[in-house]
Amino acid sequence: MAAGIWVRLIEHNRTCRDTLAPCAREDWQEALTEACHTLDVPRPILIPKHLRDYQQFSQTRFLPEHFVESVSFDRMELEYIDPEAKKKKKINEKYL
Q1: Which of 6, 31, 53, 92 fits 21 for a cystine, CB–CB 3.0-4.6 Å?
Q2: Tens-digit pLDDT profile for residues 9-67
Q3: Cross-strand partners of 65
């Protein structure tokens, strides 16, 4: 599995749809556009909070007010996933 962003649409605290868009950690905004196209939802407006959350935690959330068009879900969650980073971390912890 390649690294990328996992985009989930949450409705009533349950994932109703999701997709994984491959990308490098720094190129997540282009992958978000691709994921929105795949999920057939409008692209959210990025505000400084989203950029800060992604930089600090590798994830962020978008609420319905972050979209120009109306949406049918409660929130969109975006998380960067890198399976190789977990493997490297386990190997490094093994030697500590």
Answers
A1: 31
A2: 999 999 999 999 999 989 999 999 999 999 999 999 999 999 999 999 999 999 999 99
A3: none
Q: In the 8-state DSSP scheme, what is residue 66?
A: G
CA distance 92 to 36: 36
Neighbours of 86 (CB within 10 A): 10
Tokens 């319905």 map to which residue? 64
The per-type count for the chain, helices as H runs and strands as E runs, is 3, 4
Domain ranges for the chain: 4-94
Q: How far apart are CA 8 and CA 56, in angstroms?
A: 19
